[in-house]
């Protein structure tokens, strides 16, 4: 069975919009019973069912259901080596928030591709930064603006120790612009079903196994390109 | 006879030393280097060539075109390897024709500029002409943020071509259907890479010679031919109302880029000026340079050494 994803259908999609949609082939035995046959609009990502030839939403609810049924994210969001022709040097990270993919450029015009969760609309950003430092099971300290808007963050204002419930997960790659911390991170998550969705506060989240794998392959100083396409807000960090 | 020979030899040695020593001090020449790969390659090739053929030491310093031209005008910069026309027509008018402080080599490299899509975008969605971008339905093919408008890169902040692409988008009408993105070239090219890897559609400002045409199957959108009567460009540096006063609903004129050098340098080092005026890089050579630096990640200085070593016949011809 082959399934496809189309992304960021914030507005209801007409047929034309679907033709225009970005379709990523999922070579997976994704059970559509888990995704559901009903169409619910106004979500972030769509999954194409080739049997019914209909697009079904891949929203938070569907993502949870799928994960509960398979203990896995859809295959497209699992780590895989893909063909990737680029002028960027191996070791560079390219983040395509629109399609929810992070590429780690490899030699031979290939890349290791991982699924990611990205910022909610309004928190999107883009730019060229670098990995300033990395940490294992990092402490999470919510930024002041998050504390101001999210009452749940207040109790962690002094910092939440690393661990399985910590929002930063198993590893964090701290993104710097020159020598300045941008406050954005590529990090793990205790909520792996959120991969493929627009949920975070501008950070890039990955499954804990994936961020651990990525951190083992990346060097401090690596160039990180966050693509502008799909970024709701370009801050240029 | 023997003494006369020794005296003669001594005189020749002194003369040779004088010839060598005169130009050999810090920054005999300053080469301004653009931030795009072929310009970086050319700047380094010139540095190696000038050392090899004229014994001159050159400093290669990265700087933008406006600053480079100001430097050529003041004499702080000697050479700028890629002066793009018609992009920098206004600078040429000011410094080459007006103040006569900058010379251009007579032999330009043919170049092209326009809007490109991937082959898959053209074939799958029938987007082949620039007017397709102004079609609201077709423009949604490029919508990545769900606002109903497409997104496209029109160049980096500060490029003169970026201002002209804004004018062209207004003139063709796709400024209403497409969000025009300005960002560093690395980000734009990585977006093309990601789109090509996943079959996603993408439209973007393109110029050649450029390595992107070697990396991916790229198609330039067709446009009405350049018509000087319809090409009215006012640049932001010349008028705050530049956009409303400009109109360009036609393709770019055939572009060329030239080596620029300070007139004062030409007077000081006429053989160097003659050498620069003889250089006739081909578009294929420039594409190879771009690919070598940007895709193969060759060190510009080492690449230049190898290029000069492998093209001695051409350098000898340019030196005559």
TrEMBL record, chain A:
Family matches, as CDD domains: YkuD_like (cd16913)
Transmembrane segments: none
One Pfam family this sequence matches: YkuD
GO biological process: cell wall organization; peptidoglycan-protein cross-linking; regulation of cell shape
GO MF annotations, alphabetized: glycosyltransferase activity; peptidoglycan L,D-transpeptidase activity
Keyword presence, Cytoplasm: no
Similarity comment text for this entry: Belongs to the YkuD family.
PANTHER family assigned: L,D-TRANSPEPTIDASE, L,D-TRANSPEPTIDASE ERFK_SRFK-RELATED
Name of the featured protein: Putative carnitine operon oxidoreductase
Organism: Mesorhizobium prunaredense
TrEMBL record, chain B:
Residues of the ABC-type glycine betaine transport system substrate-binding domain: 28-310
GO-annotated cellular components: ATP-binding cassette (ABC) transporter complex
UniProt keyword terms in alphabetical order: Signal
InterPro entries, per database record: ABC_Gly_betaine_transp_sub-bd
Signal sequence, renumbered to the chain: 1-26
GO molecular function: transmembrane transporter activity
Pfam families recorded: OpuAC
The name this protein goes by in its record: ABC-type glycine betaine transport system substrate-binding domain-containing protein
Provenance organism: Mesorhizobium prunaredense
């Amino acid at each position: 069975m082959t399934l496809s994803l189309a992304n960021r259908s914030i507005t209801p999609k007409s047929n034309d919009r679907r033709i225009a949609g970005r379709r990523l082939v999922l070579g997976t035995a994704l059970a559509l019973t888990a995704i559901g046959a009903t169409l619910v609009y106004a979500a972030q990502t769509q999954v194409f069912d080739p049997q019914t030839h209909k697009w079904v939403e891949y929203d938070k609810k569907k993502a949870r259901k799928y994960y509960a049924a398979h203990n896995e994210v859809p295959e497209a969001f699992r780590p895989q080596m893909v063909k990737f022709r680029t002028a960027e040097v191996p070791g560079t990270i390219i983040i395509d928030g629109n399609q929810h993919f992070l590429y780690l450029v490899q030699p031979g015009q290939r890349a290791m591709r991982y699924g990611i969760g990205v910022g909610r609309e309004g928190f999107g950003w883009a730019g060229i930064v670098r990995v300033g430092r990395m940490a294992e099971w990092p402490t999470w300290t919510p930024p002041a603006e998050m504390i101001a808007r999210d009452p749940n963050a207040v109790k962690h204002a002094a910092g939440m120790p690393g661990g399985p419930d910590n929002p930063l997960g198993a590893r964090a790659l701290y993104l710097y612009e020159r020598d300045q911390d941008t406050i954005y991170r590529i990090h793990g998550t205790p909520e792996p079903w959120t991969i493929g969705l627009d949920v975070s506060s501008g950070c890039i989240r990955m499954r804990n196994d994936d961020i651990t794998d990525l951190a083992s392959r990346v060097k401090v100083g690596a160039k990180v390109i966050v693509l502008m396409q799909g970024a709701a807000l370009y801050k240029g960090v | 006879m023997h003494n006369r020979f020794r005296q003669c030899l001594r005189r020749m040695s002194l003369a040779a030393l004088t010839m060598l020593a005169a130009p050999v001090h810090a920054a005999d020449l300053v080469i301004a280097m653009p931030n795009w790969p072929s310009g970086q390659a050319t700047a380094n090739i010139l540095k190696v060539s000038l050392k090899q053929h004229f014994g001159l030491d050159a400093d290669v310093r990265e700087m933008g075109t406006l600053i480079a031209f100001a430097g050529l005008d003041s004499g702080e910069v000697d050479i700028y390897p890629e002066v793009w026309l018609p992009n920098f027509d206004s600078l040429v008018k000011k410094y080459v024709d007006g103040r006569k402080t900058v010379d251009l080599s007579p032999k330009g490299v043919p170049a092209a500029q326009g809007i490109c899509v991937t082959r898959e975008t053209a074939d799958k969605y029938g987007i082949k002409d620039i007017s397709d971008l102004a079609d609201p339905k077709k423009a949604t093919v490029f919508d990545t943020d769900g606002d109903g408008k497409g997104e496209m890169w029109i160049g980096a902040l500060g490029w003169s071509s970026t201002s002209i692409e804004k004018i062209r988008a207004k003139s063709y009408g796709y400024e209403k259907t497409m969000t025009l993105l300005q960002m560093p070239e690395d980000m734009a090219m990585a977006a093309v890479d990601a789109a090509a890897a996943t079959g996603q559609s993408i439209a973007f400002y393109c110029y050649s010679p450029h390595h992107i045409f070697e990396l991916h199957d790229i198609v330039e959108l067709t446009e009405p031919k350049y018509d000087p009567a319809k090409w009215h460009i006012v640049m932001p540096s010349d008028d705050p109302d530049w956009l409303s006063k400009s109109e360009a609903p036609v393709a770019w004129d055939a572009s060329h880029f030239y080596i620029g050098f300070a007139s004062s340098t030409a007077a000081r080092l006429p053989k160097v000026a003659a050498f620069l005026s003889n250089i006739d890089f081909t578009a294929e050579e420039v594409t190879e340079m771009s690919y070598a630096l940007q895709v193969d990640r060759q060190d510009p200085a080492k690449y230049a050494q190898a290029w000069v070593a492998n093209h001695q016949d051409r350098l000898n011809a340019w030196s005559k």
